[in-house]
């Protein structure tokens, strides 16, 4: 059987309805959507996202990443993105897998692996922490081998770590290998930006200076500006704004806070500024946005994967 077809059938068998489903395999989740979804902002954490069927579009600031079957996306930092399934139907639903990257396992492999052959790991024209690649047969075979374990759950505890290691090995031998290696090296530019990202995520609801963020990242202010934008396609303050607005939306949706209380909770002093920026990101003011999310939840799939 064609490996892509087998991957499609496994995901379909373990996702009988639309949604995102955690599996018994650690860090692995499956996604099924039977119709086109609306754009949905969220934070993409370091992960491998591989599509078996359908097409998805991911926006990082003003950059568009569109991918479909036998292509995969690698995220190497926590990134505010907007995701949208743009091709799906009840007969041919969107089907994908997401494997959160085990950074400890990747670090161990980086130490133990022999040097790659010449020409491997060169990520052409992709300086961002979000990159697309074509899925080669070896990587696809490793993904299928991991997902086959869902049909024999008694084998997962013993064989899933081996299958996941093979999948990570294929990634470390693929055309995004250099990006993954930079993510793991303590003083690489990507790791420095990741330190800045981690600090902003912990302090997003408080005012901060770019100088303070640069100090946390162990970079000069000018270097932070340059490399933060190179990795995330936005400035540190733009990154903070997206985190604030996404958390405010979650508070209004999940904890039933009113817009003013949510705005104050995430660090806004001006309710009118909050309303303007919320509408700019989500396409509607808070009350209208939350009403449509509750009325048609199936049209608003989470951004990741």
UniProtKB/TrEMBL annotation:
SMART domains associated with the record: HTH_ARAC (SM00342)
Alphabetical keyword list: Transcription, Transcription regulation
Signal peptide limits: none
Domain of life of the source: Bacteria
Gene3D superfamilies referenced in this protein's UniProt entry, alphabetically: Homeodomain-like
InterPro entries assigned to the protein according to its UniProt record, in alphabetical order: Homeodomain-like_sf, HTH_AraC, Tscrpt_reg_HTH_AraC_N
PANTHER family listed in its UniProt record: ARAC-FAMILY TRANSCRIPTIONAL REGULATOR (PTHR43436), TRANSCRIPTIONAL REGULATORY PROTEIN (PTHR43436:SF1)
Name by which UniProt lists this protein: AraC family transcriptional regulator N-terminal domain-containing protein
Organism: Rhizobium helianthi
